[in-house]
Structure formats: C-alpha cells, structure tokens
Design goal:
The protein has one domain. It is built from four helices and three strands; from the N terminus they run βαβααβα. Helix 1 links the parallel strand 1 and strand 2.
Length: 106
C-alpha cells in the first residue's frame, strides 16, 4: 500500500513455500489476500513477490502472465518488488537460520 512521501509498504511472499507458479499463486490467494483484508481492504495493495527460477520461467508464458495481470487487477494489487530467481530449496532449515547471521548487534 502506498504511504506518505511515495513510500510503499508491501507484503513479502518469501516467507511462504512454493517452487512452482501454481504453488505461488495458491499462496497469494491463501495468505496474501488474508493479510490484505486486515491491513488494506479498500486501497491498492503492494506485494513483494518471491519467484523461484522455475516459477519465473512458468510466468514468462504470455498466457500465464496475462492471467496474473488480471488476478492483480481484480484484487487491486500490484507487485512493488520481486525477490526473484532463487535456485534450489530456499525454504530449507539452514537458509532460514542463516538469514539472521551475522547478528549485527554484537
């Protein structure tokens, strides 16, 4: 959602599992729209979209891309930023733990 001074607050989908485009869009429907209903039900809603390499390849199909554009329009959402193209199991345990290292407070 757009805040003052042209800043955007986006819901980032990298916390949800999903390697394929079908898993990604299911996650958007299941989780992102629930958060939207609570935070910003009437205004355009920003999404920080996480796409695996395979999901990005699937979405490069013109039919899939057009369907996603319609999905966004129908829900008054927009992709503000992308965490794109990770290969492998991004949601493995070690990756999640290592995201917080080093601890910059020490």
């Amino acid at each position: 959602m757009k805040l003052k001074n042209d800043c955007h607050l986006a819901y980032c989908t990298n916390i949800h599992r999903g390697s394929s485009w079908s898993e990604t869009i299911e996650s958007l429907d299941r989780y992102t729209m629930r958060v939207r209903e609570q935070v910003c039900p009437k205004d355009p809603y920003a999404i920080g979209l996480r796409l695996s390499a395979s999901a990005a390849a699937e979405l490069s199909d013109p039919t899939a891309l057009k369907a996603f554009q319609k999905w966004l329009d129908d829900r008054q959402c927009y992709v503000f930023t992308i965490n794109g193209f990770p290969y492998g199991d991004f949601h493995g345990t070690r990756v999640k733990e290592d995201v917080y290292r080093p601890d910059w407070t020490t």
